[in-house]
Write a structure and sequence with these properties.
By secondary structure, the protein is of the alpha/beta class. It has helices spanning 2-16, 23-27, 35-41, 58-65, 77-90, 104-107, 129-138, 207-216, and strands spanning 48-52, 69-74, 95-98, 113-119, 140-151, 181-184, 199-202, 220-227, 229-230, 239-240, 246-247, 258-264. The relative contact order is 0.16. Bound molecules: S-adenosylmethionine. Residues 1, 4, 8, 53, 55, 58-59, 74-76, 79, 100-101, 119-122, 125-126 line the site of S-adenosylmethionine.
């Protein structure tokens, strides 16, 4: 996780200026939240909302614009510094906390929330999913809602430079192995340059592992959705629709590319 933190510190700076993240569009009033996340998290106006692994906070700040009392948490000091700069620049009331997600309960002084969200590229950075699920349960109020939207692990197994949708090459494991896939830090999905000497460590987590861990932490699963599109060009052959979403070519995607879960804490 220390290797990853160094990587995210470097990427945060680059992402802040990238067209992919569109900070200027956000400053001009645009929301970064897709409709399925707004629907998935349910009504947030006037409610306290915790956003885990928030990067430099564009989604967290967008939840604030929808009326939530939002708190974003991330372990990258660079990302949190940039998020706080946006709070000042945009005049929004959003709190940002710099902490490892595994330390969320103590970093938040035991505060519990009616809504907790985490989205888009969060789980592969974490070694231990049962422990992560226990953290999610521990920061929820009784009856609180946990919303997760993630890239589908089935869609993460191919070599990203495979050149044909008809014959994508398998490269990564689907099932957890307990060990991270360690790779030299290439350019990021968001246009950040490769980090010289940097290493990324990503752990594969199957859908079954994620769901079972949430159930074992005492949460109840209310809804699961699988999506035939994704929000970025994960493979060179994906085609962008007029809605800005990326799909497998042809009439029907052979694979799910993202999924979302809604869980409830007991009580
Ligand atoms: C792909 S980004 C999430 C992007 C976010 N969904 C967005 O669109 O801005 C993953 C984030 O997870 C954070 N992260 C990775 N491991 C973490 C950990 N152990 N604790 C807290 N944050 C972590 C990184 O710093 C990074 O900001």
């Amino acid at each position: 996780m220390e290797l990853n933190r160094a990587l995210w510190d470097a990427w945060a700076e680059d992402h802040f200026g990238s067209g992919f993240y569109g900070v200027e569009r956000f400053r001009a009033g645009e929301s970064t939240l897709p409709d399925f996340d707004i629907e998935g998290a349910g009504p947030v106006a006037g409610r306290r909302l915790l956003h885990l692994q928030c990067h430099f906070g564009l989604d967290t700040l967008s939840w604030t614009r929808l009326g939530a009392e939002a708190t974003g948490l991330d372990f990258s000091p660079k990302a949190i510094g940039l998020a706080r700069r946006l709070v000042e620049d945009c005049g929004l009331r959003t709190r940002f906390v710099c902490a490892n997600v595994y330390d969320a309960a103590s970093a938040l002084d035991g505060e519990r929330f009616p809504v907790v969200v985490s989205t888009a590229g969060v789980l592969p950075w974490l070694p231990d999913i049962p422990r992560w699920a226990a953290v999610a349960a521990s920061v929820l109020e009784p009856g609180g809602l946990f919303y997760l939207r993630e890239f589908h692990p089935v869609s993460q197994v191919f070599c990203p430079t495979s050149d044909s949708p008809a014959a994508p090459r398998l490269r990564y494991p689907y099932f957890p192995t307990g060990a991270p896939v360690r790779e030299p830090a290439e350019a990021s999905y968001g246009g950040a340059a490769a980090v010289a000497g940097g290493t990324s460590c990503e752990w594969p987590h199957s859908l079954g592992e994620v769901i079972q861990s949430l159930l074992d932490s005492g949460l109840r699963l209310d809804a699961i959705r699988e999506f035939p599109f994704t929000t970025y060009r994960a493979y060179p052959w994906l085609e962008e629709g007029t809605d800005g979403r990326w799909r497998w070519p042809g009439d029907q995607s052979p694979l799910p590319l993202m999924y979302s879960l809604r869980c409830r804490a007991p009580g």
